[in-house]
Records
---
Amino acid sequence: MKALILCGGTGTRLRPLTFSLPKQLIPVANKPVVFYALEAVRAAGIGEVGVVVSDAGDAVRAAIGDGGRWGLRVAYIPQDAPRGLAHAVQVARPFLGDEPFLMVLGDNLIGEGVAGCVERFRSRRPDALVCLAEVDDPRRYGVAELRDGRVARVVEKPQSPPGNLALAGVYCFDRAVFEAVDAIAPSRRGELEITDAIQRLLEDGRTVEPYRLSGWWLDIGRPEDVLAANRQVLGTLEGAVAGEVDGASRITGPVVIEAGAWVNRSVVRGPAVIGAGATVVNAYVGPYTSIGPGATARACSSRLRQ
């Protein structure tokens, strides 16, 4: 089984953050978002990954490399423009062949990872499996309607949602999806929608099973989502000090101080991360804060606003 990680898209809703880097490389707890997807794929026992890239492909390639740091083999698949998730499946077919595959959006974070849904797919062998999460405003997402424990219908960003179960950006497919993708037409926004491909599978009598996530899920689509993700991930930290902390400083709670970082005459309250090579001098670093690699925080205070 192979994996497909989608790193196309322009990230317009995340501007100005995405003027200088693709949204999949925006750091959460000092780590690019897409790195969490790569870690989740490896934890699910998958070793071969295709990364779909478009305009910002060079930056993504430079960040991920050949995948060796995660024990993965990474191939890059160019997409000439962000033409939709189903189009990404189309252009990736030469890489995927006829094997079942896992597809993950590179700008999503899933607390429990993807191993559970992959195992369910491998054991039950449906034509498709979709990960679902309960959301407050399903009009922002693709939404699944369930019947008798299976997916009966999917609809993209409905004004009158049939429920609150959103497609959480993680899918498992067998080769039947290629026929479905080839059979659909572009949506009103000019994209081949994965929801339309899944609906086509259902209309063709294929089996689409749901996998309801038991933990948290975050779609990094807006600046406020980046802050929420940073808080969520930092909340799972276990402290580790690899850098230098002088005797006049005080570290409380789960704090990660990476190699080469220097904390001098400062207070750091966790959860917090001080990046590799960073300098914190005469400062207060409050909880749920990340200081980036190589950054300097001097004579300043970082406090969480409630």
Note: The first strand starts at residue 2 and ends at 7.
---
Amino acid sequence: MNFHHFLICAALPFSLLPAWAATPGKDETPPSAATEKEIEMGRKASVEFEKNPKIKVLDPAKDPADKALIDKLDKMVETLGKVSARPDIKYSVKLIDDKDINAFTLPNGQIYVYKGLIDFSNSDDEIAAVLAHEIGHNARMHALRGEAKARKLSWAGLAAMLMALGAGGRNGAGIAQMSQYLLIGIMNGYGIEYEKEADVSALQGLAKTPYNPSAIVTFMQRLSMEEKGHPEIELGIFRTHPPSGERAEAAKLEIQKMGLTFNPRDVTGGRMAKIIESGDRFIVKRGEVTLFELALSDKDKIAVQKRAETAAQAVNALMRAGLQAHEVRAEAAPGGARLVARGQEIVLVSAADAALQKLSPLDCAAKWRTNWGRLFWKETIGGKL
């Protein structure tokens, strides 16, 4: 259930690794396209990875829905790749049929995305944030830098790291079954320094696209909640990723340093208030939470629909503006009651609305205020609005 980024940074057994002469430094300007070395490393690693009988790479030719999703992801990485520090790397996505919240990149631009990650993401922005992070690893040439570090490790250190990872449950067991080629790459993948670099690179790239950089924070915050519910064995000095909560806070600070606005609710493709016609009412919902139910009849259907649309627009605008739970109030109004926030009327409770709920107008407004409380509670525990 954990999200790991594995860049396979070696495709030859450790003892056969050549002493590459052109390993880049952290601050050196990288070439715009993948080097021959990176392309070959990625090709060999891809072959090895897909040999694993437990890995099911989905064939887009067999399922239109898979093809549509892969096409969408390919377009996303194309957009994100072009604004990265290495715009000429040719990125493509392969989809893995697995519930893990996982993705990783190879140094040739091949990105593997697990379906569990797609299901976990709340919006296109969050998917883009993960893809931008993976592209960030290639933008910072972490494969070649990691390979240089790998050559310095002793077999004793490698064995110790394997033992630590092997204690980590399903993911650890899966790693233990991989060939020596992949094992070396995973053991010497990124480390905390590389993960932080990739996060910063992702924020810089997202800021140049229509995708919201705040999505890195919302994704990491929910991932942190997931990790707390499914804790791993503590790997101590063998931990290669900063805790997701720490990464979320670091990303928020970086967004501020970049002069960008942190607005986690304003995400493309995210959960917005929607209107549903159901029998004798229009229902205004955000996610799975019903906020209002407006009574209708055939003679005033257009007018009630307009009320519902106005209320939904007010909900979306207030949420994007960072509305807090305590700011929503139910109060009496001429001819009934209403919900207000920040001096703005969200929705007026008509006599027909109150009758539909079998409540007084003020009690109906109070009920709708309670619905808002449920909305904020769901956001607090997981962000799944």
Note: DSSP finds 14 helices and nine strands in the chain.
